[in-house]
Amino acid sequence: MLTCVEGNASNSCQVGLVLYLGMVFSKSSSGNPRLSMGLNGTIVVSTGSTTTMVFGLCSLMFLDTSINMAMQPFKMLVGDMVNEKQKALAYSIQSFLCNAGSIAGYVFPFLFTYLGISNVAAKGVVPDSVIYSFYVGAAILILCVIYTTVKVKEMPPQQYAEYHGLEKPMNEQKTNMWQLLKNAPSTFWTVGLVQFFCWMAFMYMWTYTNGAIAHTCWNTTDTASTAYQEAGNWLGVLFAVQAIGSVVWAVVLPNIPNRKFAYALSLVLGGIGFASVPFIHNSQVLLIPFLLIGCAWAAMLAMPFAIVTNALEGRGHMGAYLGLFNGTICVPQIVAAALGGSILWLVGSSQENMLALAGILLFVGALCVVKIKE
Known about the structure:
- By secondary structure, this protein is mainly alpha-helical.
- It contains 14 helices and two strands; from the N terminus they run ααββαααααααααααα.
- It has helices spanning 2-8, 11-23, 50-81, 87-114, 128-151, 157-163, 177-183, 186-217, 226-252, 259-276, 287-311, 318-325, 327-346, 351-368, and strands at residues 35-37, 43-45.
- β1 (35-37) and β2 form a beta hairpin.
């Protein structure tokens, strides 16, 4: 929910959020900084409020890190507490709930605005409707974590062995990260390869969609223009539609008998969605490709973990392995960010071409699904 409240803000609000977080504990002696969003998504500061900006960015980093740390144990618990036949369904339910929370996160700022809370603020300041949405999201996150910690009881070793059909309880020996990676099943690496292409694609979506649709549907590349901000506002709607598509597709996924086929099909649908965005010049029609992108997103939240946890069954160190598997989410995004500027230059500095590239990356990911052996 917090992630989607953040995504619901236009570029100016996201920049304002960084400044807001920074200004909570520091004052700028140089007045209000003027900010612009570059073609590669880089924030450019045109006056000297570097300390405030750095503090705000660090605060945002801690926010994203805390959300990630709160989410990952839930994936590990499913791997431990659900048997092999139920895992695809369990992770699909988890994907459904994650995306339902996303929709709620997108709705909150609009709800608060409807209730009379201001959705307008001075330049560089976050509107009250967005600030209160973060407060509500934070409260819900904390309450859900506390509820889960109190209510969910992990199985003792003997019960775990009986439930998962093991001959005897696992005796997990002390080991290290490199040894775990060395002994990881091949499925761990093949699913990781699929993840690499998928998360690169979505990194480019998050970075370049605003500029792409501003150019194709609003005919502007001026980041300071009203039209560009309208495109940013519409982007929040598109991401909400993507979440709706994910919720619906998460219900469909468990009913497809062949798990690999369901995974590959989802990525192909998402690839079609990405590849079609550069050719659409009507903002309303953009809803269709983002519904398709939602199909890929639902599969990415469910299928990799269902497949990998089944491959790790009986090996022990489930939590450590899934922690390492989380690297297949982080590393692709780091690579995509590091190469993004160079690739953007190679494709003619066209942000819509970056979305076409994202579609190609999902198609490649779908082909790599064939390599997965369950």
